[in-house]
Amino acid sequence: MKHHPIFQNAITWRRELINRTVVAPMSRVSATADGLATDEMMDYYSAFAIGGFAVIITEGIYTDVYGSQSYNNQPALVNNAQSTSWEKITCAVHQSPSLIFAQLMHGGALSQYSEDTLAPSALKPVGVKMASYGGEGAFPIPKEMDLTDIERTKQGFINGAINAYKAGFDGVEIHGANGYLLDQFLTPELNHRIDHYGGTMHNRFRVIAEIIAGIKAAVPEDFIVGLRVSEGKVNDLTYRWTQGIETAKELADEIKASQPDFVHVAVQTGEWERDSFLEDGTSLASVIRQATGLPVIANGGFHNLDKAQVALQDNHATLIAIGKAALADPYWVVKTMNELPIIPFHRDMLWPEATLSHTQKIIKELGLEK
Ligand SMILES: Cc1cc2nc3c(=O)[nH]c(=O)nc-3n(C[C@H](O)[C@H](O)[C@H](O)COP(=O)(O)O)c2cc1C
Q1: Whose CA is closest to atom 7 on ligand 1?
Q2: CB-based contact 110:95 (threshold 8 Å)
């Protein structure tokens, strides 16, 4: 198993990575009410580093107080106290040869924190709020963002990245996926704007391009700035672009022009081959990789190592992100490499709540500890 391509080291971002595994971002709503990272979170994140993951991407972290927060007990990088609270986590992770990126997130119309939500257009989201994140019932109709709202949002992401840098993170991932604010801008059905933030792909991508440029101007050159994108949405799992591969290529061209340091392609169903393969059999990850030449992280059901082998050997991706399997067992990498038994994911680990303490409770109750 040690010879599997996922366990081979790599030089990426001019750094030597111990292997090609990445922890996918997973919201765990276990911060304090005012967005401070806790000791429990330090234990959670440092376990992935001890367990052999090369890169750890944190849960979505909110970036401003004007509407970015998605959940109660979501961590933040808005102010100095919040930034300082992450230092113990980056420091603990750096005891091992792993990198840690902060995922910067704005919930937009899918925020479950407040009824006063913001979005590119005043369109009620389909679907219902997520109960395991404290949500209930339908989403409200969001306020259409004016240019002041957009400016504040951009500044929030830039400020969040500066606070991440100060906290000792190796980089940030801008959350442009899964139906949250930046994906709402990207999605024609959710963005009916007639100004320069709506219409063409170039316009719909503009806010992301401005955020990437703003962050790059504010942090040192070796601070890694990535972007996560997806076709599907958490509230609309089977959403597909009507123009399929044409949209993928247009998106890839915009990404290339904005020059992030990596692209992370997410899926909703956990089935990478179903969710991200476009109609001609090409994957979204490979379209982006070919068009941009950037490192690409692929995600979705890759605890299945046969799939991971295809993704790496057939040039779909550079690195592989693992979500639920890592959540269930943070030592997944070392255990899998050494063919030791792992704790398997069980849906009750996230139900009725997605908190860290609840998962630990279920692992004990089900006698899954090895
Ligand atoms: C509990 C949980 C929380 C998640 N939170 C986030 C998040 O904060 N940001 C994000 O981009 N994706 C989030 N995701 C999606 C995962 O990053 C990943 O895309 C998904 O779990 C599929 O990968 P897997 O098949 O390896 O689990 C979350 C997934 C889970 C299971």
Answers
A1: 26
A2: no
CATH of the domain at 298: 3.20.20.70
Per residue in 135-167, pLDDT tens? 999 999 999 999 999 999 999 999 999 999 999
Of 6, 27, 173, best ligand 1 pocket probe by most atoms within 8 Å of the beta carbon: 27
Strands of 4-156, DSSP E: 10-12, 15-17, 21-23, 55-62, 99-105, 118-119, 143-144
Of 169, 175, 157, the C-alpha closest to 84 is 169
Whether residue 234 lies inside any domain: the answer is: yes
Q: Are 13 and 261 in contact (CB under 8 A)?
A: yes
Continuous segment of H or E residues that includes residue 182? helix 181-186
Q: Is residue 147 part of a domain?
A: yes
**Residue 260: domain span:** 5-365
C-alpha–C-alpha distance, residues 300 and 304, integer Å: 9
Cα–Cα distance between 44 and 25 in angstroms, integer?
13
pLDDT of 370: 61
Check whether 273 has a pLDDT greater than 70: no
For residue 24, the CA-to-ligand 1 centroid distance in Å is 6
Q: Could you tell me which residues are beta bridge partners of residue 7?
A: none
**Distance set, CA 139 to CA 70, 206, 230, 310, 343 (Å):** 12, 26, 21, 39, 35
Active centre residues (catalytic):
180
The number of domains in the chain is: 1
Tokens of 342: 């792992």
| CB burial string 293-312: b at 16+ within 10 A, e below | ebbbbbbbbbbeeebbebbb
User: Is residue 217 a part of any domain in this protein?
Assistant: yes
**What does the pLDDT average to over 115-141?**
95
Are 192 and 199 in contact, with CB atoms under 8 Å apart? no
Cα separation, 243 vs 279, whole angstroms: 10
User: Is 370 part of a structural domain of the chain?
Assistant: no
**Ligand 1 atom 26 nearest Cα:** 323
